[in-house]
Design brief:
The chain is mostly helical. It folds into 2 domains: 453 residues, no CATH class; 45 residues. The chain is 75% helix and 1% strand. It has a two-stranded antiparallel ribbon. β1 and β2 form a beta hairpin. α6 crosses α10, α9 crosses α19 and α11 runs parallel beside α14. The protein is globular, with a radius of gyration of 23 Å.
């Protein structure tokens, strides 16, 4: 009870509440704008949070992260264009319902499922917090290194069909973090005699270039499409609750998938929603209606999506390991304020951790109330021209880059990464492995240096229970990926022989 009281005191301040309100509503609006997304918004807001207290800055970022998928469901359902990539499955059943004149019902189900999934994961993880606090101190340098290596391995192999590209891009990220002054011997690495490289490549500059500047270029290239918005009324609370209650089993299972997948680095929303959607279809009384406007499909997808953000904070807070690009950006806020995520944070600042979960709880309440009254207004935001959005994103992102260190060199670097990110997007290659390579590469290098001071043989590196379990998981993941590749080649060979 004392811990809860301390956590409430941390967030019961006007600046924290203002950050929560702005982040929550801003995240919904950004999520409702196709082609923008939470990653772009967080990248733009990130430089501003460096001048704020950690709890204030992280609350604003959590607001955007946790609410963007609520807004992303609106264009997914109404105009068949997901506001964020993770709302893609919502289009399968949401848009057909809109075509049948059930757009309002589809939105109500999406809001309800999103809220249910978010609250489910937050409550579940609040109960798990004491367990996590007791386990976290068992992670030493070896365990954190292996956990980071497992995370980057999972990030790579979850990009099915693009494993080689994801691995190469993650390697690029790992290389980028080595540039500059080496921390232990203070020697220069890969600076090539250039003074502006001695301080290294700033993570935020890379983030703004790869996500914000590149997305602005994409919007500049895309033509504006006329959008015809359907007429949907304000959601009716009692009807919404009664309608959603019919699908509570699907929502609960989907939320469970979201919690599990969110806690595993590199897995996240995409895996959880596909597992949830497949379960809903397999256990449905009308599986043939999936993809044609089945309400269960919307509930399964949205419940799984929105239960991930709270769960994704676990590896970030307990081990300092981000699972995807959004939590990697949040990690930068910790580092700027010398708040080190990891075992000691759970052991010594459990009130801070619980305060973040309370903020997640509040932001979902704020978002649902806001959507009841502002859905029709948000629909109008979808008609904003792409090129105008692109110009706004480019302007704010370059201002943010310059404000970091008042450096035109940073602006040039961000522009270069923006062009690189634009090329990757046009080729349909992922950009997130680069960011995770930078963050996890730095973590792995630091922990490996510390661990090797106490290790004399390879076996000693994994002779502790948690280290051995993590090493085994890495081996299994690599072997499974190899087996999958071999099976795919056999299937292609058999098809060729049949022809």
């Amino acid at each position: 009870m004392e811990l809860l009281s301390s956590s409430i005191d941390l967030i019961a301040r006007w600046d924290v509440m203002a950050a929560l309100l702005i982040g929550s509503i801003g995240g919904v609006i950004v999520g409702g704008l196709p082609g923008v997304g939470a990653a772009v918004a967080i990248a733009i807001v990130l430089p501003v949070t460096f001048s704020l207290e950690p709890i204030v800055g992280l609350t604003a970022l959590l607001g955007i992260y946790g609410s963007s998928m609520f807004g992303g469901a609106i264009p997914a359902i109404l105009v068949n264009t997901p506001g964020t990539p993770v709302n893609a499955l919502t289009t399968y059943d949401g848009y057909p319902m809109t075509l049948r004149g059930e757009g309002q019902r589809a939105l109500s189900l999406a809001y309800s499922a999103s809220f249910y999934g978010a609250i489910f994961s937050i409550v579940a993880l609040m109960f798990l917090a004491p367990v996590l606090a007791s386990i976290a101190p068992m992670f030493g340098s070896r365990e954190i290194f292996l956990a980071a290596l497992l995370g980057i391995t999972l990030v790579i192999i979850t990009h099915r069909g693009q494993v080689l590209a994801a691995g190469m891009l993650a390697s690029v990220g790992i290389f980028l973090q080595t540039i500059g002054i080496e921390p232990s011997a203070y020697t220069q690495r890969f600076t090539f005699g250039l003074g502006w490289l001695q301080s290294g490549i700033n993570l935020i500059v890379v983030v703004l270039g790869l996500f914000a500047v590149s997305q602005a270029l994409v919007l500049f290239m895309d033509k504006d499409k006329p959008i015809k918005l359907p007429d949907v009324g304000r959601p009716k609370v009692l009807e919404q609750v009664r309608d959603f209650w019919v699908f509570k089993r699907v929502a609960t299972v989907g939320s469970g998938f979201g919690v599990i997948c969110g806690m595993i680095p590199g897995v996240g929303e995409f895996m959880s929603q596909f597992m949830s959607y497949a379960y809903a279809q397999r256990t449905s009384k009308t599986p043939e209606l999936f993809g044609k406007g089945n309400p269960e499909g919307i509930v399964a997808s949205e419940a799984a999506n929105n239960s991930v953000p709270a769960a994704a904070m676990i590896p970030l807070l307990a081990l300092g390991i981000p699972g995807e690009e959004l939590t990697a950006m949040m990690l930068a806020v910790f580092y700027v304020h010398n708040v080190v995520p990891g075992p000691q944070l759970f052991a010594n600042q459990m009130d801070f951790v619980l305060a973040l979960y309370l903020c997640l709880l509040l932001l979902n309440i704020i978002v649902v109330v806001f959507l009841f009254f502002a859905t029709s207004t948000l629909m109008k935001a979808m008609t904003i021209p792409n090129r105008f959005l692109g110009m706004m994103i480019l302007t704010f992102s370059l201002i943010g880059v310059y404000s970091l260190r008042n450096s035109l060199t940073d602006v040039a670097i961000a522009s270069g990464f923006g062009v690189f990110g634009f090329i990757l997007k046009r080729l349909d290659y992922p950009t997130s492995p680069i960011i995770l390579g930078i963050v996890l590469g730095k973590l792995m290098e630091d922990k490996l240096r510390t661990a090797m001071a106490r290790v004399t043989t390879p076996w000693e590196f994994i002779d502790r229970p948690i280290a051995f379990i993590l090493f085994t998981m890495i081996v299994i993941a690599v072997l499974f990926q190899g087996w999958t590749i071999i099976q795919a080649r056999r299937e292609r060979a058999s098809k060729v022989s049949d022809v």
